[in-house]
């Protein structure tokens, strides 16, 4: 039997703020353990939480960008459980009345002609818990250590409906969500630093069925790859269980990236009853309509709108537009370079620039695992290089040599061209001399071409290019060679 997998994601996003959600402790990452704490976030009795306005604003902006309905009044609730990283023995979260509900995110996937619409169930605010450190080996302390620096850092939880159908869908959704959050500037979105964390609910059902199967919750994935692998593993595990006549047990499983497998963490029977109740130390959170509308009006252009604008205004393919807009900075880079090129004449300027950015620049960045911010080639230099191609100074081939040099030295393209004497040769007289020489030296290839073997032209073009030190304009070389070959034919 064929099975369909049904996946929903719960994503915890650390909201970028200077101070914590309910106190003024700093949120910087990597501080010495227990240095960013105070009586409020350490859970001393009698301390009152004071809500961080910036965190609420970021939560509302995110909800609006995802098309959610923001509640005029939401309520904080205590989620109660005992764990050593939670000094109050409850986490302040939102439960029955979350910040916002009912949104959507459109996700481009490989297997569908149209973007997949993933419904967003809810967006709510909560505080983070602390961190347990388990020292290992000689010299390590016995037992575990508690670091409360992370306690009280603002989070938003974004819960999707189970609209994803494969591990690839899950990864693409997560990438699209991250891209949106980066455009909004509301989070660092660094999975390795834990500022973007993801749990997945996975079930399978016979293909075509409308009812949902028993779901298993996966935790502890800390990379895009991890999410994909964990979901694949779980789909295979459930399929094998059902096919061998077994049943799926509702449980929470912990992903082990090193072993590439998950193991049970707790079953439904042991599932926590959190005894939620409204937080008595905080009034209901008011989000007045006018305030929400002013935030909506100030939202930036989001990735999907920008992608559409790129295909429309720059005549780019869907693929180019997607690559260029996935990362806000890369889209900004492209547009900054384009501003410098828009007055230059030439066909296909937008596409030529897009090729240089997506192929050469991104290729180098990816190969070196580098961020765009540390690229030695700024947008102005990239525009300068493309301008030299457009005005005929450089052939595409020489431009690559110039780009190599720009990447290595951070130099300006025009200077490099001058210093290295890399200007393209457009002089037809010189090219014709090289062409005649090449024909004289490669009589066999010339004869082959004349007798109908068109492929022989390639080696002749290569000979001329070599004679010119790679600097002859390839189109002129082609044309002149054909002229010379033709005249040779009529002459002989
Ligand atoms: Zn504090």
What does this structure look like?
The chain is α+β, with helices and mostly antiparallel strands. The protein folds into three domains: 3-295, no CATH class; 303-420, no CATH class; 428-491, Arc Repressor Mutant, subunit A. Helices cover 40% and strands 19% of the residues. The chain is built from 15 helices and 16 strands. The chain has helices at residues 53-65, 167-184, 224-243, 289-297, 303-313, 318-326, 328-341, 349-367, 379-390, 396-409, 413-420, 428-441, 443-450, 456-467, 474-491, and strands at residues 3-14, 69-70, 73-74, 76-80, 90-94, 100-107, 116-127, 131-133, 145-147, 154-160, 196-206, 216-221, 251-256, 261-267, 277-278, 285-286. The strands form four sheets. It has a nine-stranded mixed sheet with strand order 2-6-7-10-1-11-12-13-14. Strand 13 (251-256) and strand 14 (261-267) form a beta hairpin. The model has no long low-confidence stretch (mean pLDDT 92). The chain binds zinc ion (ZN).
Key terms for this structure?
492 residues, alpha+beta, Arc Repressor Mutant, subunit A, 3 domains, nine-stranded mixed β-sheet, three-stranded antiparallel β-sheet, 16 strands, binds zinc ion
């Amino acid at each position: 039997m064929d099975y369909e997998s049904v996946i929903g994601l719960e994503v915890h996003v650390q909201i970028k703020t200077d101070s914590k959600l309910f106190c003024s402790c700093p949120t910087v990452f990597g501080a010495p353990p227990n240095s960013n704490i105070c009586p409020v976030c350490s859970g001393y009795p009698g301390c009152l939480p004071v809500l961080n306005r910036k965190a609420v604003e970021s939560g509302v902006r995110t909800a609006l960008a995802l098309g959610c309905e923001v509640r005029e009044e939401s309520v904080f609730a205590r989620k109660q459980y005992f764990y050593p990283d939670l000094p109050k023995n409850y986490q302040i979260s939102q439960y029955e009345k979350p910040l916002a509900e009912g949104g959507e995110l459109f996700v481009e996937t490989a297997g569908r002609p149209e973007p997949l619409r993933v419904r967003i169930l809810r967006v709510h605010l909560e505080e983070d818990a602390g961190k347990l450190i388990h020292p290992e080996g000689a010299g390590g302390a016995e037992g575990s250590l508690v670091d409360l620096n992370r306690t009280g850092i603002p989070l938003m939880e974004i819960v999707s409906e189970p609209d994803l159908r494969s591990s690839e869908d899950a990864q693409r959704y997560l990438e699209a969500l991250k891209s949106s959050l980066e455009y909004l500037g509301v989070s660092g979105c660094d999975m390795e630093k834990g500022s973007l964390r993801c749990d997945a609910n996975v079930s399978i059902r016979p293909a075509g069925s409308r009812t949902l199967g028993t779901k298993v919750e996966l935790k502890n994935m800390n990379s895009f790859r991890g999410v994909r692998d964990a979901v694949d593993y779980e789909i295979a595990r459930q399929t094998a269980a059902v096919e061998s006549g077994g049943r799926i047990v509702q449980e929470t499983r912990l992903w082990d990236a090193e072993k590439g497998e998950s193991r049970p963490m707790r079953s439904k029977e042991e599932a926590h009853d959190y005894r939620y109740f409204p937080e008595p130390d905080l009034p209901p959170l008011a989000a007045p309509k006018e305030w929400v509308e002013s935030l909506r009006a100030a939202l930036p252009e989001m990735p999907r709108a920008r992608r559409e604008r790129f295909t429309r205004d720059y005549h780019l393919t869907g693929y180019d537009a997607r690559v260029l807009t996935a990362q806000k900075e890369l889209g900004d880079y492209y547009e900054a370079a384009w501003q410098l090129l828009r007055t230059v004449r030439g066909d296909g300027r937008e596409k030529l620039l897009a090729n240089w950015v997506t192929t050469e620049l991104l290729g180098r960045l990816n190969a070196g695992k580098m961020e765009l911010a540390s690229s030695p080639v700024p947008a102005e230099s990239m525009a300068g290089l493309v301008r030299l191609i457009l005005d005929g100074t450089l052939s595409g081939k020489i431009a690559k040599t110039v780009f190599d040099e720009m990447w290595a030295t951070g130099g300006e393209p025009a200077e490099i061209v001058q210093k290295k004497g890399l200007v393209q040769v457009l002089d037809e007289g010189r090219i014709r001399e090289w062409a005649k020489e090449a024909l004289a030296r490669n009589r066999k290839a010339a004869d082959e071409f004349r007798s109908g073997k068109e492929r022989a032209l390639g080696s002749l073009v290569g000979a001329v290019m070599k004679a010119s030190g790679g600097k002859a304009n390839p189109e002129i070389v082609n044309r002149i060679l054909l002229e010379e070959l033709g005249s040779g034919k009529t002459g002989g």
